[in-house]
Amino acid sequence: MQSLSTPETPPEVSTPIPKARVSTEPDFNSPPRPIAEFVGLPDFPRCAVGAYVDIGGFAGIVADIVNNSIKVRSPEGISQSFNFNRLRMLYGPPPAKVEPLVASPEPERPRERPQSFEQQSERPTERATERVPERIVERPSERFERVVKKEEPAPRPVPRREVVSEPDFSQPVKLINVLAGRADFPKCALGEHVEIVGYSGVVVEIVNQSLKVLSIEGTTRSYNAQALKKLHGGG
After folding, report:
1. Which helix (H) or strand (E) holds 90?
2. Top-tier CATH class for 33-91
3. Residues 48, 34: contact at Cβ < 8 Å?
């Protein structure tokens, strides 16, 4: 005789599902992405943290953000820092062009139709007023007040000329050394028959400390009194 009870089955034991292990190590297997793909994003440089990027030929993982720089570590363990503001300038999209404001052209004025001779003669006073500007009539006194009178320089005094009208060549010849050493030279030499370095003649005029000597042959030479006093006056 069979038993009506069903055999008890052992309870099922659930096997635990292993959890996926997330690797914290950087992945250098995929090709690096150009940094230009990140610098144009609004959340740069945060969006580039952990990405394998290429910056000007240097490839590595963006490991950290320090101040204004991102720290990139290469597969060989070499770390370099890059200023992300500079990266925006070099690899970011160009700034939007601002078109200059162009002034709208002025509307063309309607050209005046040429008038006939009869139309021009009808309004001579009105047309003259339109073309000829109003003249301002000034009184002579007002015009004189606006003129700036320049001060004229004072006339230079005319040097006093001492002239011997009739030179005397019969008097004995004196060396200029005798006269140049005197205190009243060159006045003492006026009218004297002198010899100056081989040239002899009468001192016929003294102008501006200059002696004019006339020879008996009629030739005239001028000598500076200060130079004669220095050369032949012993002083």
Report:
1. helix 84-91
2. mainly beta
3. no
Find all residues with CB under 8 Å of 193, minimum gap 6, and list them. 168, 169, 171, 172, 173, 174, 200, 201, 202
CATH 2.30.30 domain locations along the chain: 33-91
- Say what the pTM is: 0.34
**Tokens (6 digits) for 112:** 């005046």
Contact 207, 216 (CB under 8 A): no
Residue 129, number of CB atoms within 10 A of its CB? 11
Compute CA distances 175 → 31, 195, 207, 211, whole Å.
115, 5, 21, 14
Retrieve residue 146's tokens. 């606006």
Give the single-character DSSP code of 232.
H
pLDDT (tens place) for every residue of the chain, 235 residues total: 444 444 555 555 444 433 333 334 667 888 999 999 999 899 999 999 999 999 999 999 999 999 999 999 999 999 999 999 999 999 988 776 767 766 667 777 777 776 665 565 555 555 545 565 666 666 665 555 565 555 667 777 666 677 888 899 999 999 988 888 888 888 888 899 999 988 999 998 988 888 899 998 989 999 998 898 888 877 5
Q: How far apart are the first and last CA of the chain?
A: 176
